[in-house]
């Protein structure tokens, strides 16, 4: 069989194998594939949509971010940073040092 188109890929069906619900807007660790953002609450044991492409507003660490800067997810602090281990995307609008959020293109 050759590959057959299934659907657009902006979001994926994600099985919550944890014991707690994943809340709408929560960042979901997708391992080597980066992160996704829950599109709605996903109850434990249920399948729900996780966005893997798009522009999202994330809380950010202190410091300015310029257009095009690569950003990383800090799971402990629950924010994006200019350095780290898990690159999640790039900044689509400059964010000043005092700004609490940054617009980030994931995927």
Count all strands and give the number: 9
- Report helical residue fraction: under 10%
Task: Characterize the main sheet.
Answer: 5 strands, antiparallel
Report the mean per-residue pLDDT as an integer.
95
Helix count, per DSSP? 0
Q: Please tell me how large the radius of gyration is.
A: 15 Å
Q: Enumerate the spans where pLDDT stays under 50 for 5 or more consecutive residues.
A: none
Outline? globular
Q: Cα distance, first to last residue?
A: 28 Å
Sketch the topology as an H/E string, one letter per element. EEEEEEEEE
Strand content: 35-45%
- Structural class of the helices, strands and pairings? mainly beta
Strand order of the largest sheet: 5-9-8-6-7
Tally of structural domains? 2
Describe, in short, the structure shown:
The chain is an all-beta fold. It has strands at 11-15, 27-29, 35-38, 47-51, 54-59, 70-74, 79-81, 87-91, 101-106.
């Amino acid at each position: 069989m050759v590959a057959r188109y299934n659907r657009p890929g902006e979001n994926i069906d994600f099985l919550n194998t944890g014991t707690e619900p994943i809340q709408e807007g929560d960042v979901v660790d997708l391992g080597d594939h980066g992160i996704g953002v829950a599109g709605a609450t996903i109850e434990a044991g249920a399948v729900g949509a996780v966005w893997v492409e798009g522009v999202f507003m994330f809380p950010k660490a202190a410091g300015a971010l310029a257009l095009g800067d690569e950003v990383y997810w800090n799971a402990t602090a629950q924010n994006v940073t200019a350095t780290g281990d898990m690159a999640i995307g790039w900044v689509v609008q400059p964010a000043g040092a005092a700004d609490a959020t940054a617009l980030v293109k994931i995927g």
